Amino acid sequence: MDRCDECGFGYATVPGAAVPEWLRGLGARYAAALAAAADPRRRPAEGVWSPLEYTCHVRDVLRVQGERLDLALRVDAPEFAPMGRDERAVTDRYNEQEPAAVLGELSTAAEELAGRFAALGPAELARPGVYPWPRPEARTLLWLGRHTVHEGEHHLLDIRRGAGT
After folding, report:
1. Spatial contact of 127 and 73, defined as CB atoms under 8 Å apart
2. Residues 125-144: pLDDT tens digits?
3. Cα separations in angstroms, 131 against 31, 84, 96, 128
4. Average pLDDT, consecutive stretches of 10 residues, N- to C-terminus, the chain (165 residues)
5. What proportion of the chain, given as a percentage, has pLDDT over 70?
6. Could you tell me if 1 and 149 are in contact, meaning their C-beta atoms sit under 8 angstroms apart?
7. In whole numbers, what is the pLDDT of the chain averaged over residues?
C-alpha cells in the first residue's frame, strides 16, 4: 500500500525527515476532533467505531509501532505480530475509557515515537521488517513511519465522519 484510495493519503508525500513532525501534531489534531464530537462514545452505525474508539486505536497503534521499530533495530528482518485491533477494542473496553486520559496517552505516545523516528538515519530507516497487514510483506522503517502517519490521518477522517463534522 502506497496510497489510500479512501482518504487520499500518499505515502511518498511524507519524506522521512517529516515523519516526526507529523507524529507530533497528532495529539492536538485528535483533541480537536474529539472535542468536535457531540458524543464521543456514539457509534454512527453498526460495525463502525465511535470517535473515542478510533482515538484509543490510534493511541495503541502508536505504541505498537514503537515496539515494532525497537524490534527492527535489534533484529534483522523481524516478523511483526498483528496488533489484534478488534480484540483490543473489546478487551480494553475502548468505549468506556476516559477521553481526556486517552488523549493524554495518545499525545505521549506520539511524542515518544516522533523522538525515536527523529533519531534515525538513512541506514536505520532502510531496515526491513515483515509487516502483517494487509498481507505479510517486507517493509522498511521509513514505510512504518509513513504508515503510522497514515493511520493517524485516516482515523481523523473516520472520527469527523462519525461525529458528523
Report:
1. yes
2. 999 999 998 899 999 999 99
3. 29, 13, 30, 9
4. 90 96 97 96 95 98 98 96 96 98 98 98 97 92 97 96 77
5. 99
6. no
7. 96
pTM score of the predicted model: 0.96
Helix axes 141-163, 26-36, angle to 10 degrees: 20
Radius of gyration of the chain (CA): 15
Q: DSSP letter string over the chain?
A: --B-TTT--BGGGS-GGGHHHHHHTHHHHHHHHHHH-S-TT--SSTT---HHHHHHHHHHHHHHHHHHHHHHHHSSSPBPPP--HHHHHHHTTGGGS-HHHHHHHHHHHHHHHHHHHHT--HHHHT-EEEE-SSS-EEEEHHHHHHHHHHHHHHHHHHHHHHHT-
d(CA 124, CA 101): 33
Give the C-alpha distances (Å, rounded to integers) separating 122 from 17, 22, 119: 10, 18, 10
Identity of residue 71: L
Helix, strand, coil percentages for the chain (3-state, nearest 5): 65, 5, 30
DSSP for residue 79:
B
Site of grid cell 489510500: 4
C-alpha 52: how far from its chain's center? Answer: 14
